[in-house]
Write a structure and sequence with these properties.
Structural class: alpha+beta
Mean pLDDT: 81
Strand order of the largest sheet: 3-2-1-4
InterPro entries: SNase_OB-fold_sf
Order of helices and strands: HEEEHE
Distance between the termini: 52 Å
Protein name: TNase-like domain-containing protein
Organism: marine sediment metagenome
Length: about 110
């Protein structure tokens, strides 16, 4: 009988905890393999439990850099070199946000 009164509170608490889990972004350690341009790189993502996703294309959130081909080539190569300098140690953390742009690429 006591448990019947307690059940709605336990259920509400479990729903609260599950909503917190979905609100969090995922953060993974990664090793940079190569920088493509000023806003894109290739990295190996460590998912845990000895699971590694090799050669994943990663677009940096909120950055729109010049491309390394076409008319923007010179500026694009400068931004690429800058990003390579910032990531020279090779170990980073990747925060995954499940958002997609209108072009089908990650935002």
């Amino acid at each position: 009988m006591k448990y019947k009164r307690l059940f709605p509170f336990v259920l509400a608490f479990l729903f609260f905890l599950s909503s917190l889990a979905f609100a969090l972004d995922y953060i993974y350690p990664a090793r940079v393999e190569r920088v493509i341009d000023g806003d894109t790189l290739i990295a190996d993502l460590e998912l845990g439990l000895s699971i590694i996703l090799d050669d994943q294309y990663i677009r940096l959130y909120g950055i729109d850099a010049w491309e390394t081909r076409g008319e923007e080539r010179e500026k694009g190569l400068e931004t690429k070199e800058y990003l390579e300098g910032r990531l020279k140690e090779g170990k980073i953390e990747i925060e995954i946000r499940p958002e997609w742009g209108s072009n089908g690429k990650g935002k």
